[in-house]
Amino acid sequence: MGRETSSTRVLGLGAVLLTASLVVFGCDEGRRTRRVVDEFAVVPGQPTVDSKTPAVETDPLRATNDFSVNVARQCDAFQQLSSRKVDILWVVDSSGSMGPKQARLAANFARFVEQLTSANPPIDFHIGVTTMDTDDPATRGRLRGWNIMGQGSDYIACTQDAQGGLTCNTGLDTSSAVTAFNQMARVGTTGSSVERGLLAAYLALTNPQNLSTQTETRFIRADAALYLVFVSDEDDSSCMPLARQSTCTADPGCRCAPETALSGTGAYGSVAYFTRFFETYKGYGNADAVAAAAIVALNGDAGVPSQFGDPSPHVGCCRADAGVCPTSGVNDGGFEISYFGGRYVQAAAATGGVTVSICDDDFSAALANLGYSASGLRREFRLSRGPDVRPMAGVAQGVTVFVAPIAAPTCMVDGNCPAGSSCRGGRCAQRVEVGLEQRTNGADYVKCDSAGLRNQVRFSGTAVPGPLSTVEICYDVLATFDNGCP
């Protein structure tokens, strides 16, 4: 009687499980589960599958008003720079042929300063001058000095005062700054015949004596934009920044090595190397705070005679106060001969700067243009891709520009903006028509100029976007865009 059968044990275990389940449910009687059923509707018909291969609809007329046409649309957004504080480094050729060019530069420098002082508020600026003679240890990386009535420095500093004007370290007003620059810019004509302007700028920008510190303000300030101006009647001959190069006497554009022999693009000595150095000088992402300009001979005249006995013609320009410049043979003197400054032109084009012919008769207008550019306001905005520009009555169809001033009203839709404005990026922006030729007060598209490929929208006159304005350029992308220039 004491033995349990197997069936008895099974029944006993079942009773235990049943009892345990009743206890569990008894402790949480409010707990229930429900099955959620999603609503659905039955659609009549039979499902079908398109078995055709993918295709892109094209329109040979490029009439992109139809959204079904698959044409890439690009919008490049920019913010205009603040025109408040800029450091300007002039790099001036001191070789034997530069005397008249230096004199013309100094005589017309007032036009450059006028652009900085006429801004509202005026520009807080520093101006320094260095020479292209990197062979002389007394000039390598050093700034030229000025002295007025016993007071002097190695740079000009004009800062905004409490009354909203400018006070300069050269004197009470900006006219004294012009006097100081006249001294600094006349660098003489006894410097090296090997003009290494890009290297000279590199040395000046890395010289600790020119850099501000936390305790002392010097020429280069960390919170100021940087503008470089190269002035030369020959091309650049810069090679390795950290090594002295052998003397070179080739004419014109004396170089230590051709561009193709400098171990490829981006190597020491190449224009790309120096351009990268300039663009990254203010730190990553601040390339727009640095620009280079060039006052050199542009690529236009291939019949310029040699100054050094070479009878073959060269590319450059010639200027004569009286008479006509020769177009062949050897220059006998009495003319201002300048050879094509291709490397300086490349540096200016790569950094969004401007180029000016050193042989221009109206040098004052050229300096006024440079002063406007140095004020910190960008006039040229380079596109990231090639646009499909369709000329129509002098207008660049397919390129649309929107400009929103810093004080523009905020918006969510076009209806929040005044008539004629569009809501772009949360601000009301004016649409600007883009022409195909330069306008006095307007915007135009420039693919190529004397500096080569530009691919940019250029503003002029009163159309130049104001400080901190937002500029948006939208355009149809041309897949077959040609990077070449005539």
Which characteristics define this entry?
disordered N terminus; 486 residues; 5-stranded antiparallel sheet; 2 domains; 7-stranded mixed sheet; 23 strands; alpha+beta; globular; Rossmann fold; 8 helices
Summary, kept brief:
The chain contains 8 helices and 23 strands.
In CATH terms, the superfamily of the largest domain is: von Willebrand factor, type A domain
Can you count the beta strands? Answer: 23
- Binned, the helix content reads 10-25%
Mean pLDDT: 77
Strand order of the largest sheet: 7-6-3-2-8-9-13
Give the strand content: 15-25%
CATH hierarchy: architecture of the largest domain: 3-Layer(aba) Sandwich
In the CATH hierarchy, the third-tier topology of the largest domain is known as Rossmann fold
Which spans have pLDDT < 50 for at least 5 consecutive residues?
3-11, 13-30, 242-267
Termini Cα gap: 117 Å
SS summary, helix count: 8
Judged by helices, strands and strand pairing, the structural class is: alpha+beta
Rg (C-alpha, Å): 34 Å
User: Biggest β-sheet: count, sense, barrel?
Assistant: 7 strands, mixed
Indicate the CATH class of the largest domain.
Answer: Alpha Beta
Number of domains: 2
Shape: globular
Description:
The protein is an alpha+beta fold and 486 residues long. It has two domains: 73-79 and 382-476, no CATH class; 85-299 and 340-376, Rossmann fold. Helix content is 19%, strand content 24%. The protein is built from eight helices and 23 strands. The protein has helices at residues 6-27, 99-107, 109-117, 175-185, 197-206, 271-279, 342-350, 363-374, and strands at 73-79, 85-92, 124-131, 146-148, 151-153, 156-160, 166-168, 225-231, 290-296, 301-304, 314-319, 336-339, 355-357, 380-382, 390-392, 395-397, 399-404, 421-424, 427-432, 434-435, 442-449, 452-460, 470-476. The strands form six sheets. Strands 7-6-3-2-8-9-13 form a seven-stranded mixed sheet, sandwiched between helices. The termini are far apart.
